[in-house]
Amino acid sequence: MQIQINTGDSVEGREALFRHTETVVKDALGRFADHVTRVEVHLSDVNGQKAGDNDKRVLMEARVAGRQPIAVTELAGSLHQAIEGATQKLKRSLDTTLGKLGDKRRIPAPPLPGDSALPEDDEA
């Protein structure tokens, strides 16, 4: 799973922030590595240089093999909080999407009413 990190003009692209983002994403989404080819992370400050509450924005998009991309957004007071929040949203979304795929492939449909799940014993 490749992780690509992009920053807006008003976000300093410090190496520590990139390492933090990469660690959080890998720890949370590592179990999806067989299905997710790339995660794109976009870090931005919606107010630019102005101060404001919940003005740090993180957009994450997971590229899932054979599926449409899954995208989530989180706004928070700091980039670290927004990264954590977006990662958890993406994890839940991948759980739902990939869990449904797994359910279709592994779990047989329940028997219809009137059908017996087990063969009946013949009484003679």
Explain what this protein looks like in three dimensions.
With about 120 residues, this protein is of the alpha+beta class. The chain has a domain at about 1-80: Double Stranded RNA Binding Domain, CATH 3.30.160.100. Helix content is about 35%, strand content about 25%. The chain has 2 helices and 4 strands; from the N terminus they run βαβββα. It has helices at about 15-30, 80-105; strands at about 1-5, 35-45, 55-65, 70-75. It has a 4-stranded mixed β-sheet with strand order 1-2-3-4, covered by helices on one side. Helix 1 runs parallel beside helix 2. It starts with a strand and ends in an 18-residue tail after the last helix.
Show the helix and strand layout.
Elements (H helix, E strand, L loop, with lengths): L1 E6 L7 H15 L6 E10 L10 E9 L5 E7 L2 H28 L18
Parallel strand pairs: 1-2
Antiparallel strand pairs: 2-3, 3-4
Helix pairs in contact: 1-2
Order of helices and strands: EHEEEH
The largest β sheet comes out as: 4 strands, mixed
Q: Cα-atom Rg, whole angstroms?
A: 21 Å
* CATH homolog superfamily of one domain: Ribosome hibernation promotion factor-like
Fold-level CATH name of one domain: Double Stranded RNA Binding Domain
Q: End-to-end distance, in Å? A: 62 Å
Structural class: alpha+beta
Determine the oligomeric state from the structure.
single chain
Number of strands: 4
Strand order of the largest sheet: 1-2-3-4
Count of helical stretches: 2
**Per the principal axes of the C-alpha atoms, what is the gross shape?**
elongated
List the uncertain runs. Answer: none
Query: What is the second-level CATH architecture of one domain?
Result: 2-Layer Sandwich
Strand proportion: 25-35%
Mean pLDDT: 83
Q: What's the CATH first level of one domain?
A: Alpha Beta
Tell me the helix content: 25-40%
